[in-house]
Structure formats: structure tokens, C-alpha cells
Write a sequence for this structure.
């Protein structure tokens, strides 16, 4: 298992412990949970949470009765996830999963594909997910939108910093994401149509692609909405109604693609 040293250093800072549990990152969390609850087979289906980090989603899946195993390349993440009730965790690489064929009902890849800059590696990870899931099971993968970095740099006010315009515009051309913060995030941003092509090349049917946050993640008061139970439900419902609108997919910070592992393309 070979992991980008820069990426490993980034995650060893421990930011993944809070990213989906605090602040506006909760919108991504709640929307991912919302789509999964409408999509997954009933518990106690077996879920491989590939690249599951510290177990933000594994935790609630286990609480719902799912049989959950986190596979992640970062030792700190594995340690934190394994401490959660009902969650198993071990080291592993999305491109070479340490499981037999058909071992799970669902393979979640909620992080790996935006950390693999080479297309061949992303397709390989999707093929591995397909292999690991039983016939009729689900493959679910998350992506960062190609346009998210530029939107975020305007929201945060970092676009005027030296060199940021060139970096953000290069992301639009190449997909390479480089954070403005020292030791910050690096990744790959997808155009919506790229997602479909990569699933197809991995031998998977055309996925249903959901925009998770819509434009709402860019709103200044989104934290206030998420802090209030009633307003949060209104926000989630609004995002749900727009989630598959093709003209809005690229505005969302994250995209979630869902497909059965072996259904012929023509059946979708």
C-alpha cells in the first residue's frame, strides 16, 4: 500500500476527527446520511466503509444495526474508528481491498476517489469495490466538484492571495486541488460527466449522481440552520429536492454517485 506522504501528513493532523461533526461540514454529513438512508438495503446488511476515516458514517450505520467495517490507509483513522461501538476497522487501500469477492452488500467510497489524482487508480478503486460487493449490491462513491475550490476560495476570501488565482484556475483545467492553507488539503475535483465515465470504465452501470450540498454550503448563515433542528430539516428537504437537477450538480461541494454492482446499463 503506497500513500502520498503529503496526504498522510495532512490526515495525521487529526482534522478528520471534527470535519463532518462540526461547522458547515455537517451539511455534507447530514446530506450523505440522508441519501444513504434512502438507498441502502435494510440492516443488518454488511457495509465496507472504504476510506471511512475516523468513522463519522460508520458510527451511525452501526447504531442503525448495519454490520460495518472501516478500511482506511491512515493508522490514526483506523485507531479512532475501531474505538466506536459496533465498528471494526483495519488498514487497507481502496485500490487493493483486503476482502474476498462478494464479501459485502455495500461498498462506500466516501473519500478515496478524490484523493487519487490518476484516473487509472480511480477506475481501479471502483473495480475493486465492484469485486468486493455481492451480485445486486451497491457501490456508493463521493466526489469533490471540480468547481468547489474556486467557490470556496471566494467564500473564504483567499482568492486575492498571491498565486491563488492561478492555482484555482488551474484546478478548473486539470482537476488538481491545492489548499491555500499550509499543510492543507490536496485532491482531485470531478466534473459530473467524468463520474459517469469512470463508473462505466470500471464495469459498473451508469450511477445516479446526487449533489449533496447544492449551493447552500456557500451561504454565510448555514451553521445557524444546522444548529436548529427545525431549520436543519427544512434545509435538508430543500437540498433533497434539488439533488439530481443536472444544471445544479457542479455547484455542490460534493457529489454522491450510487449504482448497483452488476445491473446492466440498460436497466437503469
Amino acid at each position: 500500500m503506497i500513500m502520498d506522504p503529503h496526504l498522510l501528513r495532512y490526515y495525521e493532523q487529526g482534522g478528520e476527527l471534527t470535519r463532518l461533526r462540526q461547522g458547515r461540514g455537517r451539511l455534507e454529513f447530514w446530506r450523505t446520511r440522508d441519501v444513504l438512508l434512502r438507498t441502502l438495503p435494510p440492516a443488518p446488511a454488511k457495509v465496507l466503509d472504504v476510506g471511512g476515516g475516523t468513522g463519522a458514517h460508520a458510527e451511525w450505520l452501526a447504531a442503525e444495526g448495519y454490520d460495518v467495517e472501516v478500511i482506511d490507509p491512515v493508522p490514526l483513522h483506523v485507531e479512532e474508528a475501531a474505538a466506536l461501538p459496533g465498528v471494526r476497522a483495519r488498514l487497507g487501500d481502496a485500490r487493493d481491498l483486503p476482502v474476498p469477492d462478494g464479501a459485502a452488500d455495500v461498498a462506500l467510497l466516501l473519500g478515496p476517489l478524490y484523493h487519487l489524482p490518476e484516473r487509472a487508480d480511480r477506475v481501479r478503486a471502483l473495480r475493486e469495490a465492484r469485486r468486493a460487493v455481492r451480485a445486486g449490491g451497491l457501490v456508493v462513491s463521493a466526489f469533490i466538484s471540480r468547481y468547489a475550490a474556486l467557490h470556496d476560495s471566494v467564500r473564504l476570501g483567499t482568492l486575492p492571495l498571491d498565486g491563488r488565482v492561478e492555482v484555482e484556475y488551474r484546478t478548473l483545467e486539470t482537476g488538481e486541488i491545492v489548499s491555500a492553507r499550509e499543510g492543507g488539503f490536496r485532491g482531485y475535483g470531478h466534473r459530473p460527466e467524468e463520474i459517469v465515465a469512470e463508473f462505466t470504465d470500471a464495469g459498473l452501470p451508469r450511477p445516479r449522481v446526487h449533489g449533496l450540498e447544492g449551493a447552500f454550503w456557500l451561504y454565510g448563515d448555514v451553521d445557524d440552520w444546522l444548529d436548529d433542528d427545525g431549520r436543519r430539516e427544512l434545509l435538508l428537504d430543500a437540498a433533497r429536492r434539488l439533488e439530481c437537477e443536472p444544471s445544479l450538480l457542479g455547484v455542490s461541494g460534493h457529489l454522491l454517485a450510487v449504482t448497483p454492482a452488476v445491473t446492466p446499463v440498460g436497466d437503469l
The two ends are 35 Å apart (CA to CA). Residues 263-268 have pLDDT under 50 and may be disordered.
